[in-house]
Amino acid sequence: xxxxxxxxxxxxxxxxxxxxxxxxxxxxxxxxxxxxxxxxxxxxxxxxxxxxxxxxxxxxxxxxxxxxxxxxxxxxxxxxxxxxxxxxxxxxxxxxxxxxxxxxxxxxxxxxxxxxxxxxxxxxxxxxxxxxxxxxxxxxxxxxxxxxxxxxxxxxxxxxxxxxxxxxxxxxxxxxxxxxxxxxxxxxxxxxxxxxxxxxxxxxxxxxxxxxxxxxxxxxxxxxxxxxxxxxxxxxxxxxxxxxxxxxxxxxxxxxxxxxxxxxxxxxxxxxxxxxxxx
Length: 279
Ligand code: C2E
Ligand code: CA
Ligand code: CA
Ligand code: CA
What we know:
Layout: H1 6-35, E1 39-48, E2 53-64, E3 70-71, H2 77-83, H3 86-106, E4 113-117, H4 120-124, H5 128-139, E5 146-151, H6 152-156, H7 160-172, E6 175-181, H8 190-193, E7 198-201, H9 203-206, H10 213-228, E8 232-235, H11 241-249, E9 254-255, H12 266-274
Parallel strand pairs: 2-4, 4-5, 5-6, 6-7, 7-8, 8-9
Antiparallel strand pairs: 1-2, 1-9, 2-3
Helix pairs in contact: 3-5, 5-7
Bound molecules: ligand C2E and calcium ion (CA) (3 copies).
Protein name: Diguanylate cyclase (GGDEF)-like protein/PAS domain S-box-containing protein
Organism: Xanthobacter flavus
Domain EAL: 23-277
């Protein structure tokens, strides 16, 4: 109900102004962070369950403020998406991941691929294909050592422009993973239209394993579907041995989660390989 009370109204607009101001401040800070190179990329291991070895990494962006505070992507990716800043930010993450991959290959680190999160706004930007080619060429890494993580909604809602871009990207050799699989749209028709390499089962299905019978059945169905379609299946958000054992016993091939490691700065990620007992 609308109040005729002047005070209530004044309070309400003050709150709006406060939110709007905070948002404008955040956008300004994000712009500054881009030009001042305050963003950095951490890497979380992706593990093959069969032998518990690290086979790849997911690149996850972090913002280190001038005050030294580390801000997680959940606090700025949505605003970056709304303002279009996701395009330069995404360019940075892709270039950083390719450069990092090139260093690891040169050092002989047995990390086969790096996965990079791609937002819808990046896919609709016209030059994503050219940028991908440029990032590959500049770093010299093979295209199949880079994986793009996209969500189901991006494929479900893909117009012909997005569809042809994704096809071109896969023709370059870049692999496509479906992120947060199972949380998006109920239609699976996109699995026929796009060459998908990997399904990443969302953490919400993994959380209550092995106790939840329903989640267990859903996860098994996703694993079986992946196997039938020759799509690799990875479980996200694995935090304990019970979840890991359920996934391994039911034929899931890859896992990612705090059970093995949190996302780490590059030098700490590298250390995981010299200290195999940590994994
Ligand atoms: P996501 O792509 O689903 O990434 C996985 C998130 O789950 C990461 O959070 C990771 O730290 C967290 N995680 C991994 N294992 C576990 C676990 O066992 N338990 C728990 N509780 N969490 C786990 P993070 O790094 O805060 O990223 C959050 C989201 O921000 C990402 O979700 C992704 O959607 C987005 N994001 C991160 N980096 C980028 C980027 O470079 N570009 C874009 N467009 N989005 C990004
Ligand atoms: Ca992801
Ligand atoms: Ca995910
Ligand atoms: Ca997510």
